[in-house]
Amino acid sequence: MNELVHSAAYQDLLEQISRAYTAGRSAAFQTVNTQLLETYWQVGRQIVEFEQGGKDRAVYGAALLERLSADLRLRHGKGFSRSNLNYMRLFYLRYQICEKPSHKLSWSHYVELLKLDDPLERSFYEQQAIAERWSVPELKRQKAAALFLRLAASKDKAGILQLARQGQAMAQPQDVLREPYVFEFLKIPEPWQVSETQIEAALCQHLQQFLLELGKGFTFVGRQYRITVNNIHYKVDLVFYHRILRCFVLIDLKIGEVRHHDIGQMNLYLGYFAKEENTPEDRPPIGIILSRNKDELLVEYATYQMDSQLFVQKYQLYLPDREELRREIEQTLQMAGE
After folding, report:
1. Is the pTM of the predicted complex or chain greater than 0.90?
2. What ranges do the domains of the chain cover?
3. Euclidean distance between CA atoms 122 and 114, whole angstroms
């Protein structure tokens, strides 16, 4: 028997069965999910068409869903709460035939998406959840951290609309940036008194959430990455590799304002990685200095004629002001429309 277990033919058989089972289970789940979404969409359609069947039906309002919920639960059990029926109704209203939902997301994903009234914002999170394969908790976290609003606030009208249609593209160094980065998952109490080293250590302890905040494509390389120039040792706070852009991403964390020598030091790091760490297939490295405060004029002067791969971005430890970001976006769209 041991000879059989260790034979190449048996191991090959084991692998084939395992792959077939995994593929079949995945296909079965996809089929069930597709059918469930189609069913809920049809339920929503039937509710809306009933409501539109005349004034006498429209006046039922919330009473209709309440009655339906009670009767359907008697017949079919769980799944037909008043809240769920309301989401099915919204599902149909917000995803008409020409905008059918993607079967790559679950009903739980769509419940979270349907909570968003803004179609641009909802479309962005849908595209991003598909592209980055977000779980439902990850989707909830990015909504709470106002990812769409943070990205859109720095764009013009065309950029906002493209972001909503396609999600966040990764084609050039600027595409990896966010302003501000939000590290609310560290749960540092206010008023906070922590050092750069403590924040850095906390980010590494919450690496999964940190990678989610950085965005798609980041892989962790190391912390306090040592480089040596002329027998002098330097340490880069955090080093990542971006598998889509095919380049190193160097991050330095500052607890206060960025000074001109911080920018010069990052430029040195970029030069070292370009010459000593890059392989022929790698693109030039990207440098990001994360700071709580950012003096735009100082950054402009300090980076004058410097490598365009060096960026200074803000971070914050608490959730952003969503309404302020939303006002910025609405103002941009309004000005572009005038």
Report:
1. no
2. 2-115, 116-171+322-338, 181-319
3. 7
